[in-house]
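[job 0412] stage=fold_complex status=start
inputs:
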Amino acid sequence: MNQSDSRAGELARLFDESLSRYQAELAEAKDEPALRVVHARYAGKEGEIRKRLADALKAAPGPDKRAVGQAGNTALQKTEELFASRLAELHAQKRDADLKRRLDVTVPGRPHKLGGLHLLTQVRLELEGIFAELGFQVATGPQVETDFHNFEALAMPKDHPARDMQDTFYLRSEPGRDPLVLRTHTSPVQIRTMLAQKPPVRIISPGKVYRKDDDPTHSPMFQQIEGLCVDEGITMADLKGTLLYFVQRFFGPGIGLRLRPSFFPFTEPSAEVDIECFFCKRSGCRTCKGSGYIEILGCGMIDPEVFRHVGYDSEKYSGFAFGTGLERMTMLRYGISDLRLFFAGDARFTEQFR
Amino acid sequence: MKVSWNWLCELLDIPGGISPQAVADRLSVSGVAVDAIHPIGKNLSGAIVAEVRGKRPHPKADKLTLVDVFDGKEVTQVVCGAPNVPNPGEPGQSPRVVWARPGATLPSGMTLSVREVRGIPSPGMLCAEDELGLSEDHGGILILQPSDGIPIGADFAQAAGIPDWVFELDITPNRPDLLGHIGVAREIAALFRQEGVRLKQRSIDLDDLRGNQPQSESAHVVVEDPEGCPRYFAHRISGVHVGPSPLFYRLRLQRLGVRALSNVVDATNLALLQFGHPLHAFDLGKLAGQKIVVRRAQSGEKLKTLDGQERELLASDLLIADAEQGVAVAGVMGGQTSEVSATTTEVLLECAYFSPASIRRTARRLKLHTEASHRFERGTDPNALAEVADACAELIIKLSGGHLAAPPTDVYRHQIPTQQLTLRPERTAAILGLSIPVATQKECLEALGLSVTLDGTRLQVEVPTRRPDLTREIDLIEEVARIHGIHHIPTTLPKLAMAAPTTQSSGMIRYRNADRARTLCASLGLSEVLLFSMTSPERVRLGEGSQATQPLRIDNPLREELSVLRTKLLPGLVDLLRQNLAHGQTDIRLFEVGEVFLPSSQSEQLPTEKVHVAGVLCGHRDFFLKPSVSDVLDFYDVKGLVDQLVIGLGLQLTWQPLDKVEVRTEANPRAVFIRSIPEGAKSDENKFWHPGATAELVSVESGEVLGVFGELHPDLRQSLDLPSAAFAFELEVPGLPIEKQPYVAPSRFPATSRDLSFFVDRDVEASRLLSTMEKSSEPLLRGVALLEDYRQPGHVPAGQKALLFSLTYRADDRTLTDEEVQKAHQKVIEHLRLELQRHETHKIAISLRQ
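[job 0412] stage=fold_complex status=done
writing structure:
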């Protein structure tokens, strides 16, 4: 055994001794950061083993450097292995501990409060969608209207008894100007549309309307949805077909309808539309007052007088119009009996319809 | 309108017999809405008319009477509790009562028997009107006079025209001809023509009504306003004895909702109910000069109407006057001075035709809607006056005695002609989408009493004046559809080219954006509500604060709380917070999207309508099981919500600019920024917003304030009784189309961030620092975020705050080196330092942190 051999043996012993202390300290460390601190102290840049190796390399004569280096690298490699296995052990312990966790899954979850659209908005969007399938575009107009657009152009001149059918709110107006009203129906939108474009016209006009009425079944403000279709060759049969499509899409397949002649100043012939009562299947119940039918809307063929006001030739064009209350549609479908709930802003009502 | 089935049956020949229900059903589907059918006197049987022969008090009860009644064979004692048992008179002339004998049944379903009343047996009972199913009246028993002509012992139900059915009809304003039984009967005859139902024809011979009495001069009538009164027809009837009408007629009127008054007046009302044409009876003796003048009132002329009200008239009102003064508001209501009374012996019976528009104007102005004005303003038949007046005169003479004293007066200068219309039968098919044979169309129109002739391929139709609604071909088409049966119309879908695409109007853009705002608010956890557009002036004031926008007023509001149109949504929403809390709700988040109304400039025809979106929040954020202090909502909740809303509505949220001139050149209509409310608005007299926790949303382009959000003022909170702070926002829904942002592919190269923290004076707003950093023109800087705003005393110099920002750097074509990032970061810091020194005097100590 020469001198270099014994130096090498001494060095290996010192490395072994460091390794065993390193291993003991690793075993003491309980988490990854602590593990890394220990590791740095032995195998880091300034660590004990690396330092010792550097010193030994410096001290060793040339030919021995290779053996010294090999011993040092073996030790360092060993630290990496020990570190990795201890880290894996810690991870496994943590994982096992985590898997022992047992929650009471029946405790209520952290709620995510949902917002939502008003039921009437939901129904309006649905109706807009149904009529879009038939090619009806949405049209809008102002809610404060001129007497001309709301009445005159719809064949309801001043001093006409038909005005009694709609109790009207008037706005303070200046003398000499056309009086302003809160529109009593969305029909003025039809007038504005026809004044602005030539046939074919196929629109629906949803929106707020106002009548001077206030009781459980009448609200001074409510929403209407009206339809208008004008072209050459439009007939009352087309009106009936359009309504049947709408009724079956909205209230359910198989529901029939009937027209009852009626009167509106702006349509001729005019009709009220009843649908077969979907609550009792026409056997008679409270909703249909025993008649088997529920009244849902008014309709008719556009009166030539209206065409005259908008400059359409009533010999060339014909058309139909219909209108219904959004609230009424909604109340029927959801079985809501008090109209005022829609406008009361009670969160307990609003939040039911998500 | 109420219609008696028995009366209809008097007017019609019904060979096979039809049920009231069948008639109601067919009327309903043919244009005459039947709201209800009420049975009258149903189940009434066994009640007879008996004469009162004696009465005395019940020995054991003050309020009961023992009544001796005679049924034509024998006298029976009945116990009666009514207060109005009549005193007996001579047999045969004594008052009569209705006696429900044992075994009789009443409409209530009760069957009578012998029952002991306070120790005395009573065989059945004497009946009040309600017990007989005649009315709701239970004030006393029904008393009949011998003059009612119902014999003793007769079955009451049969003798008095009971049972009956009353139809409640909803007559549309275009059909004044249906406002009388004869019109309804004519309609039924048309609808049941195939069953052989026909209207009975009846004529009156005036000679019979003259009663061989000497004839004097006709009533003197002067029509000064033939435009307002195209025709005035009058009978002069002498020798009347005014008194009650017989029971049959009293019951008939009552059943139809008209109070029986006296035979003469009742006769005019019965004629009105039969023909739908109003008549008026004047006491001729009370008419000055025994003369009628139809003229316009003098402005301010006064007249006391039959309801006891003094009416002041205008020169536009049509007046019926005598030689001296007004005696009736024409077509609306009679006056008191010439009213028929017990002493009247001579009557002038008016049956006139008045111009509908004139009557309507007067009735509306006087707020006097009467049976007469209702019919006149819808249009009566000017050519039926003689027939109606003759029938009414006949009835007056039948009920009150008397006779026609003179030939009738008829002032009718210009005959109102019947309408001549042409119907092209193919036009019916073009409108209805249903081919109806020409012969059928002709037959339908004839069934309604129109005269129709076939002229080549066209139908020439003569429309009687009782149908003012039939003036055009289209009106005839409707009649054909109704009478033929609208149910024959088939079901097709419109064959039409897609409606030409219209360019989106600004109104439609706003409408779509409003729906977008609704969806956004709902996704942000708010529930939608809908409130009235009408509100109270106080609420408007609460919302408007120091800016005094005058709301639009409704001339005829339902009530003061709904008398103006809202200018903002929040005052209504804020009140909902209070209401919902009162219902026991706690964490409330509500929104509304709706119109607000603002006065517009003189040149505009209509006021300005804008769509706003507004919301209110109070309580906590979503919490687990039980809210903790850190779950309480604060200003930054509402701000974060508004940020999302603004971006979702297509607006571009920019940081508040440092230099206004520089920003105005951007001219981007979508650019908005947020700033704290100006000092002036902080002293808001309504105390709506908290002055230190409220911000405005401002358009960069115009400087216009588009919205406000923040915390409600503590005083408002207190007045609403809110337990904790509440937050709100309101902004205008933009009328610009929402532009889609161009797609940018995510970078393949990683971003690096650097922190930057420093102390700065507290009043330097974060937006100012963020905007400066973003404008540093460093191309690698891709984002700046504020991570901390720290103000703990002791850790931060007095009057300052510690801010921590994170700056993100990235290149699109390579991974940045540390050196590149460091260089860029230094450049941004330098820019920030210089800019702040240039514009402000604030000291800034910038320190760097990795």
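[job 0412] summary: Chain A has a mean pLDDT of 90.
[job 0412] exit 0
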